[in-house]
Amino acid sequence: MRILFASSEAYPLVKTGGLADVSTSLSSAIREAHEDIRMVLPAYPRAKADIDALQTVTTLVIDGVTVELLQGILPATNVPTYLVDAPAYFAREGHPYCALDRRDWQDNHLRFALFARVVVAMALNEANLNWQPQIVHCNDWQTGLVPALLSQHAERPAMVFTIHNLAYQGLFPAYRFAELGLSESFWSYHGLEFHNQLSLIKGGLSYADHVTTVSPSYAREIRSGQFGYGLEGLLNYRAQTLSGILNGVDYRHWDPRWDNYIKAHYSPEDLQGKGQCKQALQECFGIEVRPEVPLLGHIGRMVPQKGVDLILKAVEPLLAEKRAQMVLLGSGDKALEDAARALAARFPEDMGVCLGYNEALAHQLEAGCDIFLMPSRFEPCGLNQMYSLRYGTIPIVRRTGGLADTVVDAHADTLADQSATGIVFEPATAPALAAAIERALSLYQDKPVWTQLMRQAMSQDFSWAHSAQHYLELYEGLLGERAHWPATRWEPGKQRSEFL
């Protein structure tokens, strides 16, 4: 199959969250299954710098803008990758979506509309590549216009759109719609209009042939008012073409048996190296080296979604009583950053904070901690809990989204049948998280039980091979269905069943 994978992020070229890891790992796994998948993303400065032997393969003029299409190979993979090089749109240092002051670029709608139009040209074999995909797989709001624009063409590839986090929708004031030069037919509640705003994510939700999200539980949750962000009606309407496929983990990069970022290697059969990793992490954060005290950790965006406020409230008494230590890596809301730094300043011997993101430190934290805290208020899939499992760092998670799909709560029955892999709690409150931590600390004191829990966690297999196979089956199903598509293209507001 010929597949064009469109994303705004791919590790190691650009990363703000899990989308980057998923884009690289999924496309690589599909390539390894001998399918002709190729990636396309904007030509950010670091992306251009980090791909060796980039070549210009074509030059396009899109809405008066000259765009060069560069081609190379995504680092550490065999995935051919195209970069959409329009310097006035993408040659900006720092974050791909916002300026150094953390405010969104005011022309994001124009930037990603241009990106979408280049993807459409590639999809329709109008980019002088002599290659046309059978499937276009789009990801998140930054690519939402691709399915909308392709829907205007009867002869087009099949379209998949993946929601990585519905909280980020690409919303813009209504007047921005006119700046995009789109057909007026798109401005309706069936199309891109959302409560008198322009919603780019609706381009994918309304016009793609199939919508996926990154875990089965999240696919169910976003059809509810609690998690649907006002789009639950559309998602329920599309329920027959909406599914959840759990993200995977690239164990070539995330496994303590060969992770080059960590102090010592270890495995379920030989856990000795984990103690060395713990000491190295304590020294790195400048906290007291106390091997007997459980070390708690967290990595993630410091935003309300991730429950960082719950973590800070729940661990404060433990730090005061010197019953646990805490290390935190992330950045986000200034109020949460300030609160984390203030707590670390009060307990400098037992809490460390690193604001920002550091890939090496993320690996070291996964390896060196005893317990990983992930009390997300919602979590489409989550990767860190799966990383934690492989590193024997017992995750404490809230029962939501992908967290519910990947962690088995430790209680009498699951400990007895050796299916337990972590601690799961329900209410999104600091007391509920504190109670879950207490359960973990109690288990931690029983070394044989804790060691068995670690080994069971490390034996879980969430490799991308499983997830990629589900996507391949989806692609094949769409191509088989395509043979029965009518001459009249499907449009929002019409059920596909009308055409079959």
Describe this structure in words.
Helix 10 crosses helix 13, helix 11 (308-320) runs parallel beside helix 12 and helix 11 packs across helix 17 (430-445). The chain folds into two domains: 2-248 and 466-498, Glycogen Phosphorylase B (Rossmann fold), CATH 3.40.50.2000; 272-458, Glycogen Phosphorylase B (Rossmann fold, 3-Layer(aba) Sandwich), CATH 3.40.50.2000. The chain is of the alpha/beta class and 500 residues long. The strands form three sheets. It has a nine-stranded mixed beta sheet with strand order 3-4-5-2-1-6-7-11-12, with helices on both faces. It is built from 19 helices and 18 strands. The longest helix has 19 residues, at 464-482.
Question: What is the topology?
Answer:
Elements: E1 2-6, H1 18-32, E2 36-42, H2 45-50, E3 55-62, E4 65-73, E5 80-85, H3 87-90, H4 108-123, E6 135-139, H5 145-150, E7 158-163, E8 171-173, H6 176-179, E9 193-194, E10 197-199, H7 201-207, E11 210-213, H8 216-221, H9 232-237, E12 242-244, H10 272-285, E13 295-299, H11 308-320, E14 325-330, H12 334-346, E15 351-355, H13 359-368, E16 371-374, H14 384-390, E17 394-398, H15 401-406, H16 412-416, E18 423-425, H17 430-445, H18 447-458, H19 464-482
Parallel strand pairs: 1-2, 1-6, 2-5, 6-7, 7-11, 11-12, 13-14, 13-16, 14-15, 16-17, 17-18
Antiparallel strand pairs: 3-4, 4-5, 8-10, 9-10
Helix pairs in contact: 1-19, 10-13, 11-12, 11-17
Could you write a compact summary of the structure shown?
This protein has 500 residues and is of the alpha/beta class. Helices cover 37% and strands 18% of the residues. The strands form three sheets. The protein has a nine-stranded mixed sheet with strand order 3-4-5-2-1-6-7-11-12, sandwiched between helices. The chain has a six-stranded parallel sheet with strand order 15-14-13-16-17-18, sandwiched between helices.
